[in-house]
Amino acid sequence: CMERLITMANFRISIRAVLRGYVSREDQQEANRKLPSLFVEGLLLGGTGLGVLALIFEIAADAFSVAAYQTLLAIHGAGGYHEIAFWAFAILSVLLFFGVVPAYKAGAYLRPNAGGSGPLVEAIGPPRMRFLSWIGTSLFFLDAILTIIISAISAADVTMLLFPEWADYRILLAEVYAFFIMVVLVALGPKRAVPLFLIGGGAFTIFTIFALTVVGFNAVAHPEWGTLTADIVLRLEESGVAEHVVRVTQDISGLSQAMIFQLLLRSMSSAMLGFSGYEVIPASGKHAARPKWKVISTALTLAAIFLIGTGIIQVFAAQAWDIPSTEGYSTLLIEYEIVITQLFGPAVGGAPSIGSALLAAAGGLLAIILLLAQGGGYVGGAAVAANAARLGRLPRIFSDDRIGITVIWGAAAMAIPIIRQVVIV
To answer: CA end-to-end span of the chain, whole Å?
Structure first.
């Protein structure tokens, strides 16, 4: 019995050494002492760098805007089966929190200025493995293009909530959104555009935490509110906002194990697109306050909790209220509409009500944050391209961030009419 206790104690010590052994005691003590002030550092852009909240708010427009469509993609990939979408999201959440987060934390401590996984491999990887940095850089650059496409189309889709008569001009509107943000960033420069990300990302983060708390509570307390779902979806289909609605075709017990596994993989693949924005956090960490590794590490943990928490609540509410996948109107907005309608009532006699005003405000804020989310793709992709240019992986012309932003916009502008819908991405 004593030998087993000693073995268990040694095992725990080994685990702690693996998880925390690379951080010296002196660094840890200094960082913990500074952490309270590091939370609010840079919020007013008067500090020496971005603190934890400022870093989170800066990347919130990109990484957190996935709350608008991540569960939509997961449910679509699962063929409408909420149970499969939930397990897909749960598996990805475990991989994110126990795999990606610790790896990025270690990278932030070793090379806080590396700026993402690709440059980190280039900086500290074995020489024979450093070619992998080019693969990582290429994938991140591709993800930046996808971010522009998805965010622009999603912003156009959400605009249909306010102006459903514009449904026929959805693609043109997405092109205008992508072009507008590109022009702003090229004119101002990425660094001078930071206040836009801080204000928009901060407002969206705070609003989403409050709104999804209300959604989660009511999904538990009032599952009967799901009776509103069918009428909402029918209205969206009749107005042309939602063109493709993915519903369950048969009971899940009638599916073969092979089919369930296939739908699980599809759902994971679709939902993973939302988690891809997480790479922006270590990439933006170059602008973090000192000690940078502590700011990045804390922001990584809090952002992962936010991403996982918002996704779980959305999937749970979607299952409780039987919400299908509708590419023109996100799962999140349907959940908001159900709650707002029940608490404040719909429009009465054609006159706007408190409920309709709140829903319009939620849709407007979501459209704005999706508009700003393009900035994360532009700035992050251009920064990665600039790093690759300095390392000789891309032509030197990409050292200018404005060139990278313009190239990303050109690729996205050509792809938007081809892709058309978020679910196809």
So the answer is: 56
